[in-house]
Amino acid sequence: MNKGEKMSIKTCVKVLCLSVFFFSLNCGILHAKDDPYKQMAKELSDSASRLTNPKIAVIPFSYVDKRKSNGGAIICERLTTRLVKIGKYKVIERQLLENVLQELHLESTGVVDVETTKQLGKVLGV
C-alpha cells in the first residue's frame, strides 16, 4: 500500500466518522423545511472534497445497543440517494456493500469500528 492509498483510507475513515457525527446533529432538524438527508449529503460532500479517491460507501447505521431496526437502513438508503444526486463521487452499490459486509461477517453484528471500516475500505477500494 502506497502513501496515497493510506491517506485515502484515513480520509475515508474520517469522512465516515463525520457522517455519524452529522447524522446525530441532523436528527434535531428533522422538522426543518429543507430535506435533512439532502443537507447531510451536502455537508458530507463538502467535507469529502479533499478525497483523492472519488469513491465512497455509506454503511448502514445501527444503534449502539445493537437493537434491531430498519431505521438505519432507511437513513443509509436516503443518504446514498442524495449523494448520488450530488454527482461528485462514485457511490458503491448497496448490493456490493452488503456482499462485502457479509464476507467480513459484519452483517450480524451491525457494529463497525475503525479497524473494520479500514478493512471494508480496502476491499471496496474507497
Rg, rounded, reads: 14 Å
Biggest sheet strand order reads: 1-2
The total tally of domains equals: 1
Could you name the ranges where pLDDT drops below 50 across 5 or more consecutive residues?
Answer: none
Descriptive notes:
- The chain is mainly alpha-helical and 126 residues long.
- The protein has one domain (3-124).
- It is built from 5 helices and 2 strands.
- It has a two-stranded parallel ribbon.
- Strand 1, helix 3 (71-86) and strand 2 (90-91) form a beta-alpha-beta unit.
Question: What is this structure's SSE topology?
Answer:
Elements: H1 3-26, H2 36-47, E1 55-56, H3 71-86, E2 90-91, H4 94-103, H5 114-124
Parallel strand pairs: 1-2
Helix pairs in contact: 1-2, 1-5, 2-3
List keywords for this structure.
126 residues, mainly alpha, two-stranded parallel sheet, 2 strands
Quick structural summary:
Helix content is 58%, strand content 3%. It has 5 helices and 2 strands; from the N terminus they run H-H-E-H-E-H-H. Strands 1-2 form a two-stranded parallel sheet.
